[in-house]
Amino acid sequence: MSAPSPHKIPVHEVDATKKRIHPRFTSGFYQRIRLFSMYFLMLLFLVLPWIRYDGRQAIWFDVPSQHYYVFGLTLFPQDFFFVASFFIIAAFTLFMVTVYAGRVWCGYACPQTIWTHLFQHVEKWVIGDRNKRIKFDKQPFNAEKVIKKLIIYTIWFLMALITASTFVSYVAGTDFLYGSWQFIGGIPFPDWPKWVWVAMFIFTFATYANAAYMREFMCIHICPYGRFQSVMFDKDTLIVSYDYNRGEPRGPRKKGTHPDNLGDCIQCSLCVQVCPTGIDIRDGLQVECIQCAACLDACNEVMDKVGYPRGLIRYTTERQLVENEKSRYLRPRLAAYVLVLSVLIGVVVYALFDRVPLQIDVRGDRNQLSSTNAEGMIVNSYIIKVTNKTQQHQEYVLSITAPEGLSLRTRLKTLPLEAGRSYDLPVSVVGDPKVVGKGEIPVTFNVDSIDGTYHASRSNVFNSN
Ligand code: SF4
Ligand code: SF4
Question: Is the CB of 274 inside a 6 Å radius of any atom of ligand 1?
């Protein structure tokens, strides 16, 4: 039998009809890291909407009013650049991490993995570990089976509901979501608009379906990241691998012995039993492997028990395992990702610091573009839209920078504006035809906060024809 390459990912047809996988729960060094990472991220997701900043929800994507709050920063639809940049940076970070450490995202941080793990924990809690769950599946329906299934389904539903309400609270706001009640026939009932009901239904359904039924099917068949990872891997990417040369020929043996004709794999199949995607790591790296290292921890435990050195399954690289050379940590592809990421982060940080939380838009008043008033002066009308992008009330003063003979007329001396609000202010620019002459004269409209902190300007033209 020739050794399967740990680097080449066999994208063979996966049997979508295969039976439900009931992984055995294992413990070990990497599982402790996984649990810490998974519970920490989940806790973050659940707790973040409850954190307050300046009297309101600190992270709040208020879609209905188109205000997106991230602590002290308020973003508007015009600030799409920052949202797009965030996703581009996240994607490049993921690519970079994948080049270095393989599918570490899948195994340690992906919500699909986290929720599937939690839902499987519920099954383990109600039914028992792997063997009991397999037996339970085969068992004919009786009162005990129905009750246990009902308990599992109820807990799953509640978990899906909590997940959905947390998701929706990032948009609807916790105050509104949990504080809007009406009484129908004396029974309290959420008083939500239609979109909240629809969002709650979609997220509850998606969470339940993904974590209860789709599970590894999602990772293997639907998630594109799992599919294109092979393009990103190189010979120095860290992967969970079985040491074929050390392990083969595999076979059972008496405790405390090591027959000369056998390798270190005692054929206990624990690595297969703990695998959440139901594969055998000894067949080489496969597209189904989410690199959770459960097989690694399980095998280490077996090696400890039989008195062989740990690491028959371990984190390694193709260069180390197959070519017996030292892995290269600094390599051109990694350096390219670091460079691109540094530039991207630099540009976004600069743009964030350079961003003025005040916006001005100027458009000519179509109904009254240019006219002459009773005093013989040329009048041009505009609508000035001022947006206060700070999180405090502001008062603004309007002015123009224009050649001699032009002056600004507005009915407001100062423009008071609440945090996050916009106002369309009609203004006129008046010009003496004897001074300004004929043609299109450039005019700059300025808005300054009264305390002088913020300034924004926009150019337009004065038409004196
Ligand atoms: S857990 Fe280790 S020893 Fe047991 S079958 Fe898997 S590779 Fe072999
Ligand atoms: S083969 Fe090992 S690392 Fe890969 S998914 Fe299965 S248990 Fe996790």
Answer: no
Atom of ligand 1 nearest to the CA of 295: 1
- Atom of ligand 1 lying closest to residue 242 CA: 7
Distance from residue 460's CA to the centre of ligand 2 (Å): 63
Distance CA 240, CA 30 (A): 11
Q: What pLDDT digit, counting tens, does each position of 186-229 carry?
A: 888 899 999 999 999 999 999 999 999 999 888 888 888 877 77
Q: Which of 192, 214, 236 is the last residue of a domain?
A: 214
Q: Based on the structure, what is the number of domains in the chain? A: 2
310 alpha carbon to ligand 1 midpoint, in Å?
11
Which residues does 252 contact at the CB level (< 8 Å), separation at least 6? 266, 267, 268
The residue type of 234 is D
Atom number in ligand 1 closest to CA 264: 3
> Cα of 110 to ligand 2 centre, how many Å?
15
Whether pLDDT at 6 is above 60? no
- State how far the alpha carbon of 333 is from the alpha carbons of 197, 316, 326, in Å: 46, 18, 17
- Residue 60 falls within a domain, yes or no? yes
Q: Is 353 inside a domain boundary? A: no
- CATH code of the domain containing 402: 2.60.40.10
DSSP 8-class letter at 312: S
For residue 203, the enclosing domain spans: 22-75+110-214
Domain boundary at 214, 236, 258, which? 214
Whether the full predicted model's pTM is greater than 0.85, yes or no, is no
Q: Is residue 448 part of a domain?
A: yes
